[in-house]
């Protein structure tokens, strides 16, 4: 072993040790490792920052942005809407949610797919009384398994494609993973449909930020469109569109135009409390009451028009992406106390729109929000320009609440993100553009079509993961460039010498599965990929199945809550403990090994070309 090899191994060993210790953030450890590599001389100074320009970093970041756009579009909820009322028992809920998550993760980043499906699962759990713990961990496992089907489903596949290109000159393509991936997905789906019973009962999810707010239902004003699904429905039928989670508190009298043609309503007074069979004609104004998420779903599904949206004028100097929605509580010394939004000229003078109000001690608000006299302690949902919102709320002495994601008033649901994603996938599959360019183009298209703002895109990117990847690429490359991979492959070759090729393939996948719960799966691929390829060469076998085995093993990270973001994401809402993951993850890992190795050998023959 040369000095450079020893230094490269020592650097990687110390880095892994810090990862396992968990005292410092992963991205900080990776950056420290990169700096140490440069100072030790095992990472050339002129190549230290090549990772930040690597295609894999762009692909992962773009996949997260696209996944967030799809999640916000509500398209998945719309697709699942016909079947969600039928999901009444856990034995039906788990297979459907697992299958949907698995299918979605085939085409989007697996973390994004899980983030899209989790609100659906939690909504079903709330409605049916099913413990979220029975659904969330199987869904997390399904997201990870579904991600192995295509190039873009999971980071290990993307990174392994790059590793293969460096080693052989040809990367893995979009659907090279698909034959093996579909096979393991079928087995995983069957197992997870019944395997949820291995999880302990009685787990309760951690209290969320939503619970911390403990805010009474919001009240908002909206009207029916001139045509659409909701026109002509009764009050009861409209409430049924929200699955009973939104109440129609009042139907309002028609607006009257002022003599000078101003847009402000002249009709005053409260609306009438409707009977369940009251018909709702086109243009009928309503007062609705419910949780913000439920209100947003009903507004989107029934294509209702928020009262404030009717008066929002197009400003050529203002982009809709600059709009922000914030929650705040009216303080006792606010100039809003005792006055109505109309009297305050809230929209014209302050540039704010009052979307909804929550008032304790008053179950039903039955008057137009523009005519509602505001009180100290009212919680209001305000929309305005992001740049001026803090100043405006300060002027009005409205105390902002801790930030939480509020979809209400931030735009309508759309099929555009799914269409853009499908177009990008088709372009890559046809070989017209590289994956990095296609996904970068998809993000730009999202901006151009105004389905996502730049601010939302920056928030969607998991920057610590991006920094981790960019910093570890040159660090892991140090082992290869110093000849360390050849050395490790020699040791591994001695360990598997005399074993059949299938057994060597199984050992390779098992090592990747053993390492990835404790080392980030991206780092596992970066380190083990070159080692596996060198091992195959020493055994006189085709390197491709060994690369596939590492990618599949690194993606099969079911054993701990810290190894993969999907596992971490469900830990709090599911109320899981560290040991719960092995209950479901260990048998699933064994299944992946028993099924994955033969499938890899079948579709990627071990014999050299």
Could you describe the 3D structure shown?
This protein is α+β, with helices and mostly antiparallel strands and 609 residues long. Among the domains are: 215-290, Regulator of K+ conductance, C-terminal domain (Alpha-Beta Plaits, 2-Layer Sandwich); 320-404, Regulator of K+ conductance, C-terminal domain (Alpha-Beta Plaits, 2-Layer Sandwich), CATH 3.30.70.1450. Helix content is 54%, strand content 7%. It has 25 helices and eight strands. Strands 1, 2, 3, 4, 5, 6, 7 and 8 form an eight-stranded antiparallel β-sheet that branches. α8 (155-168) runs parallel beside α22, α20 packs across α22 and α22 packs antiparallel against α23. The longest helix has 24 residues, at 580-603. The protein is elongated and about 85 Å long. It starts with a helix and ends in a 6-residue tail after the last helix.
> What is the helical fraction, as a range of percent?
40-55%
The geometry reads as: elongated
- Terminal-residue CA separation: 32 Å
Give start-end ranges of low-pLDDT stretches.
206-213, 258-267
Number of helices: 25
Q: What name does CATH use for the topology of the domain at 320-404?
A: Alpha-Beta Plaits
Q: How large is the share of residues in beta strands?
A: 5-15%
Described by strand count, sense and barrel closure, the largest sheet is: 8 strands, antiparallel
Task: State the total count of DSSP E strands.
Answer: 8
- Quickly give the CATH architecture of the domain at 320-404: 2-Layer Sandwich
Oligomer description? single chain
CATH class group of the domain at 320-404 = Alpha Beta
Taking all Cα atoms into account, the compactness measure Rg is 28 Å
GO molecular function: monoatomic cation transmembrane transporter activity
Domain RCK C-terminal: 313-399
Transmembrane segments: 7-24, 30-49, 56-76, 96-122, 134-160, 180-199, 416-449, 461-479, 491-512, 518-539, 546-564, 584-607
Pfam families: CitMHS, TrkA_C
């Amino acid at each position: 072993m040369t000095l450079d090899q020893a230094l490269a191994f020592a650097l990687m060993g110390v880095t892994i040790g810090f990862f396992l210790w968990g005292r410092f953030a992963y991205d900080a450890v990776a950056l420290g490792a990169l700096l140490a590599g440069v100072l030790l001389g095992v990472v050339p100074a002129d190549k230290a920052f090549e990772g930040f320009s690597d295609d894999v970093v762009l692909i992962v970041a773009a996949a997260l942005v696209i996944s967030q756009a799809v999640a916000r579009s509500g398209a998945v909820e719309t697709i699942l809407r016909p079947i969600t009322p039928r999901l009444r028992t856990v034995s039906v809920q788990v297979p459907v949610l697992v299958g949907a998550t698995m299918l979605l993760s085939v085409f989007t980043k697996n973390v994004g797919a899980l983030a899209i499906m989790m609100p659906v699962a939690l909504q079903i759990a709330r409605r049916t009384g099913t413990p979220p713990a029975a659904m969330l961990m199987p869904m997390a496992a399904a997201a990870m398994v579904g991600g192995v089907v295509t190039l873009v489903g999971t980071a290990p596949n993307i990174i392994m494609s790059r590793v293969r290109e460096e080693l052989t000159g040809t990367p893995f393509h979009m659907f090279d993973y698909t034959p093996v991936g579909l096979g393991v997905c079928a087995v995983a789906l069957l197992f997870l449909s019944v395997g949820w019973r291995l999880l302990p009962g009685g787990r309760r999810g951690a209290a969320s930020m939503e619970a911390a707010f403990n805010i009474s239902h919001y009240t908002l004003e909206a009207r029916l469109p001139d045509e659409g699904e909701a026109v002509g429905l009764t009050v009861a039928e409209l409430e049924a569109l929200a699955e009973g989670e939104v109440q129609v508190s009042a139907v309002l009298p028609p607006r009257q135009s002022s003599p000078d043609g101003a847009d402000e309503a002249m009709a005053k007074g409260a609306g009438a409390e409707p009977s369940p069979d009251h018909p709702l004609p086109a243009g009928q104004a309503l007062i609705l009451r419910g949780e913000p998420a439920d209100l947003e779903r009903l507004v989107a599904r029934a294509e209702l028009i928020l009262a404030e949206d009717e008066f929002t004028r197009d400003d050529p100097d203002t982009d809709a992406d600059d709009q922000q929605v914030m929650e705040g509580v009216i303080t006792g010394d606010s100039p809003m106390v005792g006055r109505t939004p109309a009297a305050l000229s809230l929209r014209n003078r302050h540039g704010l729109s009052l979307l909804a109000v929550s008032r304790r001690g008053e179950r039903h608000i039955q008057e137009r929000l523009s005519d509602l006299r505001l009180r100290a302690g009212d919680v209001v949902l305000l929309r305005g320009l992001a740049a001026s919102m803090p100043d405006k709320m300060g002027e009005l002495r409205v105390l902002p609440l801790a930030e939480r994601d509020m979809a209400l008033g931030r735009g309508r649901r759309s099929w555009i993100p799914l269409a853009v994603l499908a177009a990008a996938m088709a372009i890559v599959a046809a070989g017209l553009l590289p994956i990095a360019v296609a996904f970068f183009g998809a993000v730009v298209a999202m901006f151009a079509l105004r389905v996502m703002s730049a601010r939302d895109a920056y928030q969607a990117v998991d920057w610590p993961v991006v920094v981790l990847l960019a910093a570890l690429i040159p660090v892991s490359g140090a082992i290869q460039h110093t000849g360390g991979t050849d050395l490790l492959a020699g040791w591994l070759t001695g360990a598997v010498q005399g074993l059949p090729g299938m057994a060597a393939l199984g050992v390779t996948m098992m090592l990747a599965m053993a390492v990835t719960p404790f080392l980030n799966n991206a780092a596992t691929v970066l380190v083990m990929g070159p080692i596996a390829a060198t091992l195959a060469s020493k055994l006189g076998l085709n390197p491709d199945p060994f690369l596939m085995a590492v990618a599949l093993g690194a993606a099969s990270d079911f054993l701990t809550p810290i190894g993969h973001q999907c596992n971490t994401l469900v830990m709090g809402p599911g109320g899981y403990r560290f040991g719960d993951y092995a209950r479901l993850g260990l048998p699933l890992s064994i299944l992946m090994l028993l099924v994955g190795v033969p499938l890899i050998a079948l579709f990627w023959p071990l014999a050299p070309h």
